């Protein structure tokens, strides 16, 4: 390129692309609409997804009874847990049959019969067993299934702290 051509190029006026009025209106209205839609829709999305985003807490233990009240004879205790199921919170009442084994260790059994889910009770027929009123299933003190049901009673996680018994999640029987 000659010096003359260079000089011409450097003095050529810069051409700006002008935005048309139509483009300006499209951008402005489009941006405003997107902003307003975002403001309306985002809270709804957050509300819908909120329970799914929350971490599930570790299974909480619930204080049920003083350890000193527990004997070798199973006793029925009722307690409430705080339950969150999606958007629905409730405080259902649970039941546990709590007793000590030969070594003095505390354990707690679920009252739900493993046959069809009726509620069992201790020693209703004088045989020192758990009995189910629905179809006569029987279980030993450890929850072992004797008749009708195919599996032993479930048990609760047990924690003892400062003289109190706390119950946690229900799990398959570990005793039989
Ligand atoms: S539900 Fe308990 S024996 Fe059938």
From TrEMBL:
InterPro entries: Rieske_2Fe-2S (IPR017941), Rieske_2Fe-2S_sf (IPR036922), Rieske_Fe-S_prot (IPR014349), TAT_signal (IPR006311). Gene3D superfamilies: Rieske [2Fe-2S] iron-sulphur domain (2.102.10.10). GO terms for molecular function: 2 iron, 2 sulfur cluster binding; metal ion binding; monooxygenase activity; oxidoreductase activity, acting on paired donors, with incorporation or reduction of molecular oxygen. The keyword Zinc does not apply. PROSITE patterns: RIESKE, TAT. Residues 98-167 form the Rieske domain. This is Menaquinol:cytochrome c reductase iron-sulfur subunit. It comes from Paenibacillus agaridevorans.
């Amino acid at each position: 390129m000659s010096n003359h051509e260079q000089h011409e190029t450097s003095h050529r006026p810069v051409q700006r692309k002008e935005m048309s009025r139509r483009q300006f209106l499209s951008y402005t209205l489009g941006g405003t609409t997107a902003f307003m839609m975002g403001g309306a829709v985002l809270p709804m999305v957050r509300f819908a997804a909120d329970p799914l985003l929350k971490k599930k807490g570790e299974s909480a233990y619930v204080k049920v009874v003083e350890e000193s009240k527990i004997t070798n004879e199973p006793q029925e205790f009722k307690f409430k847990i705080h339950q969150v199921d999606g958007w629905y919170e409730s405080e259902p009442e649970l039941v546990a049959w709590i007793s000590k084994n030969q070594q003095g260790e505390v354990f707690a059994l679920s009252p739900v019969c493993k046959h069809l889910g009726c509620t069992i009770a201790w020693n209703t027929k004088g045989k020192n067993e758990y009995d189910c009123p629905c179809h006569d299933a029987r279980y030993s003190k450890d929850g072992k299934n004797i008749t009708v049901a195919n599996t032993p009673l479930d048990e609760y996680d047990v924690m003892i702290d400062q003289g109190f018994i706390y119950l946690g999640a229900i799990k398959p029987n570990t005793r039989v």
